[in-house]
User: What shape does this take?
Amino acid sequence: MVELNSINWVEWFGYCASLVVLISLTMSSIIKLRLINFIGCLLFAAFAYFINSWPTMIMNLGIAVINVYFLYKIYATKEEFKIVSTSIDSEYLRHFIGNNEVEITKQVSVQQLYQANRVFYMLRNDSIAGLLVGDLNEDGCFEIYLDYVVPKYRDYKLGTYYFKTNQHFLQKRGVKVLKAVANHYMHRNYLIKMGFIADNSKELHFLKRLQA
Assistant: This one.
């Protein structure tokens, strides 16, 4: 009876390890894919150890090492970031919004987007990685309608670069204060991570003053 229970436990452990590896392959972010796959490989290596399958254990440990190597390369590689202004009636902007409309409209309606007076492409290594859209008033308050990053660049590097470590990119364009509305807990967590604080006068509103 003890042996049967032990076998069942090991089998379930193997199923869980397989599930983690499977989940990793559904990630659109390469960082999440590598990280979750790394965890799954370690779990699967442990499962292989339990069943005395040494080739399987060695293979999964090898894949785990490969994941660590590529994660290191991602974080160690020096990247270039730029922010480029565009007009609200740009043909390419309409194309970009159309291609990403399903995700974009989770933050803001397309109709409201086209009422904005400032549009910025956020570039990463000369590729368009995101879109920042909103209204900038005379006092330098930039109300963000949309802060969108394409899936493969969702590793917080864009937000960290523009909102935290290199605020001068926005300051040169007259921005002194950033304001945003977060209707989803993931967006709220993102804003807090980027240094925004809750605006006590308005529910779900967040703001961030750029450093002088």
